[in-house]
Design brief:
Layout: E1 5-7, E2 10-12, H1 17-23, H2 27-31, H3 35-45, H4 50-57, H5 61-75, H6 80-89
Antiparallel strand pairs: 1-2
Amino acid sequence: MKTALIVGDHPVTHIGCGQLLRDLGYDEVFEALTEREHQVLRLIGRGEDLQSIADALCISYKTAANTSSTLKRKLGARNTTELVRLAIETGLS
């Protein structure tokens, strides 16, 4: 089993990460995101692709892609699907 993190002796899969973040009071992780990161995460949560996000926010594709990568790193998401799930679970989408 691949784990995102260990809590005590219990491995937590990526599937439970969003709920765990909320349960442990890690709302500050989401609050610490920049406004641009919130905007990109919200659009990712709505199913927008990077080019659509870039167009909607009047930024380059590269900026949208870099922001997506930063979000994955900050939130512990392995892929865009996990970002979508986190956006939905946290009410950002």
